[in-house]
TrEMBL record:
UniProt name for this protein: Ig-like domain-containing protein
InterPro entries registered for this protein in UniProt: Cell_Adh-Cytoskel_Orgn, FN3_dom, FN3_sf, Ig-like_dom, Ig-like_dom_sf, Ig-like_fold, Ig_I-set, Ig_sub
Protein source organism: Diploscapter pachys
Alphabetical list of Pfam families matching this protein: I-set
Gene Ontology molecular functions: axon guidance receptor activity
GO biological process, one term: homophilic cell adhesion via plasma membrane adhesion molecules
One term under GO cellular component: axon
Keywords for this protein: Disulfide bond, Immunoglobulin domain, Repeat
Domain Ig-like: 57-153
SUPFAM superfamilies, per the entry: Fibronectin type III, Immunoglobulin
CDD domains in the record: FN3
């Protein structure tokens, strides 16, 4: 460790940061039960002629999925910055976009600068189905590069999943009306998504916007006492969209179905008693 770095309790104190402090620092904690450690790579950039330190690019995008209609005009953008000011490029499914390709003949790239960052914008006019896919914006300068990806499609986007006891709710974006969903499930020990249940869309799923939401109970097709992993994807006229970014895991306790079964029997007995009482009352009034 550099001699001018002071250890103060659980902190390292650098009185005047310099390039000589650059390197890997490791913090280690231990007790009678064992030990653990974490490493931090400290990077120190030299200042430029005007005193501003150079900086490798950073890049971000507000949206990771953009739903579109086939034939619509689409604008996608990324914010970025660095010093020296990075160069921004766009890629489609891993390859740099060629504006001479038929699907990108009406595509333009332009940029603007505000007080804190640059914005690169890609405009695709009259987007076709073969231009659905992953658009990556990459910013690079002499210190490195960074990138962000936006998925653009007319098919439904990746659902957002939420579990509430044995109920599964998902939300998905799609400009085209959603026709149906598939709920995939597998035991925690398996790798393949071989089993699924098809769920039809209901009128309550959509309020006229591009957002769709549906809730189902998982108990009719999942066994109790076993852990399952769940995934969902939605379908519209253009086909099925992508899976959710992350699956969810559930284990339905055995006593839940037993409780529901007991409750159903009690309800059936109560209904039968009510019907018999009504019949007897009707006979007495004759």
């Amino acid at each position: 460790m550099p001699s001018d770095v002071v250890v103060s309790d659980t902190k390292l104190v650098f009185s005047k940061i310099a390039v000589t402090h650059m390197g890997m620092y490791r913090c280690e904690a231990s007790n009678s039960a064992g030990k653990d450690s974490e490493q931090i790579n400290l990077v120190v950039n030299e200042p430029t002629d005007n005193g501003t330190p150079e900086q490798a690019p950073w890049i971000k995008t507000e949206l990771s999925f953009v739903p579109v209609k086939k034939g619509a005009d689409v604008n996608i953008s990324c914010s970025y910055d660095g010093l020296p000011i990075p160069q921004a490029e766009w890629f489609f499914n891993g390859y740099k976009i060629n504006m001479n390709e038929k699907r990108f003949q009406h595509t333009a790239q332009y940029a603007k600068r505000d007080s804190s960052s640059s914005i690169t914008i890609l405009r695709v006019q009259g987007i076709t189905e073969d231009a659905f896919g992953d658009y990556m914006c990459r910013a690079s300068n002499s210190l490195g590069m960074n990138q962000a990806t936006i998925h653009v499609s007319g098919r439904p986007g990746p659902p957002v999943l939420e579990l509430d006891n044995a109920d599964l709710t998902w939300k998905v974006q799609s400009y085209e009306p959603v026709d149906e969903y598939r709920v995939y499930y597998r035991p925690e020990t398996q790798d393949e998504w071989n089993k699924y249940e098809t769920v039809r869309v209901s009128k309550a799923d959509n309020d006229g916007s591009d957002k769709w939401e549906h809730t189902i109970s998982l108990m009719p097709f999942l066994e109790t006492g076993q852990k399952y992993q769940l995934q969902v994807k939605a379908k519209n006229a253009l086909g099925y969209g992508s899976f959710a970014k992350d699956y969810v895991t559930i284990e339905i306790p055995t006593n839940i179905k037993e409780a529901i079964s007991s409750s159903s029997r009690l309800f059936a007995i109560s209904s039968l008693c009510t019907a018999i009482a009504s019949l007897l009352l009707a006979l007495l009034m004759v």
